[in-house]
Amino acid sequence: MAGRKSPFFDTATTLGKIVAFFGVSAVCGVLAAGLLVPAASVAGASATAGMEFFDALPAELREEPLSVPSRVLANDGSTIATFYAENRVPVTLDKVSDHMKKAIVSIEDERFYQHNGVDLRGITRAAMHNLTSSTQQGASTLTQQYVNNTLINADSLRGVDKADLTISGTKSIGDKMREVKLAIAVEKEFSKDDILQGYLNMVLFSGTTYGVEAAAQRFYSVPASKLNIQQSAMLAGMVQLPNVYNPTKNPEASLKRRNVVLGAMKKTGAITDAEYRKAVKSGLGLKPKVLKSGCISARTAAYFCDYVTHLVLADPAYGKTVEDRTALLYRGGLTIGTTLDPRLQKEAEKEAANAIAADDESNLGAAIVSVKPGTGEILAMAQNKVYGPQDGTQYTEYNFNVAANAGGSGGFQGGSTMKPYTTLAWLESGRNMWDNVDATRDEYPDGYEWQASCLPGGQTRTYSEDGTWPVNNASDGFKHRMTVDYGLYWSINTATVAQAAQLDLCDIADATERLRLVDGSTGEPQSPASPAFVLGTTDVTPLSQAAAFAAFANEGEYCAPRALTAVSDAAGNKYKVPAQECSQEIEPQTIANLNGTLSKIAGERVAKGTISAPIAGKTGTNNGASSTWFVGYTTGVSTAAWVGRHNGNAQIFGERINGRIYGYADSATFASPMWLAYMQDVIQYYPAEEFGTPETRPSSQVQPQPQDNNPFTDDGDNGDGNDGGDNGGDNGDGNDGDGNDGGDNGDGNDGGDNGDGNDGGDNGDEPSARAEDSAPADPSTSVQPSERGGNGRGNQDETPAPPGGND
Question: Could you report the per-residue pLDDT of 603-659, keeping only the tens digit for each?
């Protein structure tokens, strides 16, 4: 049972009021004895004791930096988001209207410019009022209030429990005495304008709104310098009881309080009678503006903001612990400069939303992220979902573009976007794009030995229930001998695996690791233990894809993704940000050879002549099209576009998407068109130059004759031909089995832009392309090794469609 409150100390009783009066009188006596009268002239033991107590109190104000919001900025200086525990925008006194200064002095401390920090007359007046009235009146000067707010700010930053803060109504006599002594010390050190400026920047107006500038913006959407008489009076009236006089919650009480302040202003001569009469007749005239804290407040680039937040909170440069870093972010007034280009961000958000609506019943995700080759700067990061914790499939706080340790979903299966790395290893082994591979083989027995020098025993094997690893293509007619260039151009699974069978799998894995294409969930490098990884079984993030392909755009130089450019705090301290980190990982000529094929994929199959500048890239689709990609680039911008499942690997075939049912889908259905629409909008902003000249096959080289003039006979399994045109095509008239990879036109260019064959079947009698929604298709097939022995998850990527446009 709670103890009964003694009436002796209850100021609600007459006896309590008398005691309170004498208590206040004692305080006044101590003040007079200790501050106004020399110690030698003070008589009496009580006065001496009071002086000793007073002398023991601290005389120096503990000041800590004000809690100031932090801002995340785009590369043009525009604000992306604001973080704050206290919404405060410190301003100098000359940035506050005279009306506001006069209003706060008139209602809170009309003798502010006459006293020395403590107003004994005010203390006596308040004591008499409180003794004889049912209402309570304070006697704290503005200087005392400034001191108390400073103490509260310091204690809050030091982690003092809210219950122990010296909030009005909870102060002991000792607290009051400390406040008084410190107020006098402050008055000796600072000018009246300094004190008034400090008070107006520190005082609470409502909720998390602190300081006059933030309050002016919050309730009137104007700077403090533009506050008029009635606006100033309303804000000045709020500081006594911020929650009670909040005009958005209690407009009647706020209006009544404002008029009291106007009366005080007239009494002190701050306004004329005419100004008073006009102002008191006016309404509140609110124009409220809510400034939310954190990335949820961002009007654009919310997911990029979230990524930046994770970078700051994970970096010891901003504090020893996560708690320290969080406090700095929300209270330290950081200005965080970033690499984000608002021009690209606007277009990325538009195209991601156009590709798949946020609330589409399919719940598919769409993501676009751009990186600048040569710097690693992240220029745009967008997705179709709305950033936030709310219920509903249109909302998520997971960032589709980044790794799990940065607040991301952990990536998605890369599919055929991984095939260039097998080709890189092929080229780095001394081989060529015009070399032939036997793509007829569509199964590998479990006992097949795959060279893997970095693994125990220097090799690996597949293990499956039926004793073989089947490798199939998405479309019929591609199981024949072909050049590496042709196999990559049409994304032939059997061709890629045939290349891998001649290589060391560790060299392929090394190519992915050099370009930082690691598992987006675990951060581990891709493992060569399962040969299936060459077809894209590993989950990789769109950001890592964009950064890796940026190395293709930049002559083999890889630059780590970079978001922060500069960070400083409210006190002007600068923090170290990660420096640009670039390294030459691939020889320029090797990249030029690879780009020769990737340029044709982007220019001939994706853009189809709609972009005149040099572009390159690679498509990708996994089984069931739960992950579809196009990662494309110019020398100025590298962009990964992804569409698929962000919550599993269920196939999307038969799914209703954007209002229609798709019996079949692939990279050409959503991802490639999204990339193309985006790049058409932004390619102008960054230079798009030539990628370099690929090496060509020596014209004197003698090639074998094709064994079959029709590679599609018997599904291409028998008599596929030897990459027709490799022989006759040197003279400009060869046809790779009626059009496949033919037409080297006598100049050694395996891809024959001239001549009778066009490395893509534009000439000859090849089957016409299947069309799906008037766009190239990208059917996916399954390569399903058993999970035994760590040999893959049995979920492989996309391969081509028939020549003529299908992926």
Answer: 999 999 899 999 999 999 998 899 999 999 999 999 999 999 999 899 999 999 999
Residue 719, SS3 per DSSP: coil
Domain for residue 80, yes or no? Answer: no
Look up the domain containing 45 and give its range: 14-49
For residues 30 and 120, what is the distance between their CA atoms, to the nearest angstrom? 11
Q: By CB neighbour count within 10 A (0-12 exposed, 13-18 middle, 19+ buried), where does 29 fall?
A: middle
Query: What does the alpha-carbon distance between residue 162 and residue 155 come to, in Å, rounded to a whole number?
Result: 9
* Residue finishing a domain among 254, 280, 306: 280
0.85 surpassed by pTM: no
Q: Give domain status of residue 659, yes or no.
A: yes
DSSP state of 780: B
695, 720, 736 - which closes a domain: 695
CATH of the domain at 424: 3.40.710.10
Let me know whether 545 and 453 are in one domain: yes
More confident position, 62 or 758 = 62
pLDDT (tens digit, 9 = 90+) per residue, 264-300?
999 999 999 999 999 999 999 999 988 889 999 899 9
Interval 315-362: pLDDT, tens: 999 999 999 999 999 999 999 999 999 999 999 999 999 999 999 999
Comparison of pLDDT for 761 and 288, the residue scoring more: 288
Are the CB atoms for 508 and 534 separated by under 8 Å? yes
Q: What is the pLDDT of residues 146-161, one digit of tens each?
A: 998 888 877 766 655 5
Question: Same structural domain for residues 595 and 540?
Answer: yes
Torsion of CA 30, 35, 37, 39, to 10 degrees: 80
* pLDDT for 407: 92
Side chain identity at residue 157, one-letter code: L
Separation between Cα atoms, residue 628 and residue 741, nearest integer Å: 26
515 & 445 share domain: yes
482 lies in a domain? yes
Better-predicted residue by pLDDT, 417 or 801: 417
- How is residue 218 written in tokens? 């919050």
Q: 617 and 509 in one domain?
A: yes
What separation in angstroms does the CA of 382 have from each of 99, 606, 695? Answer: 46, 21, 37
pLDDT reading at 537 higher than 60: yes
CA–CA dist 393, 383 (Å, integer): 13
Express as a percent the part of the chain with pLDDT over 70: 74
Cβ contact 724:486 at 8 Å? no
Is there a single domain that holds both residue 493 and residue 594? yes
* Contact call for residues 487 and 495 (beta carbons, < 8 A): yes
**Per-residue DSSP letters for 503-546?**
S-HHHHHHHHHHTT---TTT-PPPPTTSGGGGGS-SEE-HHHHH
Residue 152: other Cβ atoms inside 10 A: 17
Q: Give the bridge partners for 776, in sequence order.
A: 771
Domain count, the chain: 3
Q: Which has the minimum average pLDDT: 284-293, 476-485, 572-581, 789-798?
A: 789-798
Half-sphere exposure for 161 (CA within 13 Å, toward CB): 2
Q: pLDDT tens digits for 25-54?
A: 444 444 444 343 333 334 444 444 444 544
* 276 and 417 assigned to the same domain: no
What is the per-residue pLDDT for 290? Answer: 83
| Gap between the Cα atoms of 621 and 605, Å rounded | 15
Question: 93 with 42, same domain?
Answer: no
**What own/partner pairs with CB < 8 Å and gap ≥ 24 does 587-592 have?**
587/428, 587/556, 588/555, 588/556, 588/692, 589/692, 589/695, 590/424, 590/427, 590/428, 590/556, 591/551, 591/552, 591/555, 591/556, 591/691, 591/692, 592/555, 592/691, 592/692, 592/693, 592/694, 592/695
C-alpha dihedral (127, 131, 133, 138), degrees to nearest 10: 20
| CA atoms in the 13 A half-sphere facing the CB of 470 | 9
Residues 366 and 368: their CA atoms lie apart, in Å, by: 7
Q: Is 717 a domain residue? A: no
